[in-house]
Sequence to fold (98 residues):
Amino acid sequence: MKEVKILFASYLLDTVVSEIKESGVERYLIISRITGQWRKDLKHFDNHVWPGTDSMLLLIVEDEQAQEIVDVVRKIKDDLSDRISLAVIVTPIDAVVF
Fold:
């Protein structure tokens, strides 16, 4: 099993969720209104200087599905400017109880 975190500019929520669902993901958590700094010139602090927020999808999936999700995120990112935040992080899970 893998934990997959997808972090992205909040306005991409519908696109990311739609693409992930098409990959067969049924369970996910949405964490909204995240603020932070991606790099010196890319920040989202939900204020007049650095507007906007980020969101995160948290997924727990089988190993094979994790790679599919990485590929989906890569495809979305390829269509975006490098000024738009989008990242995916995959980590192994030793145990899960649902």
About this structure: The chain has a mean pLDDT of 94. The beta strands are 2-9, 29-34, 36-39, 42-44, 54-61, 86-92. DSSP finds two helices and six strands in the chain. Helices lie at 13-22, 63-78.
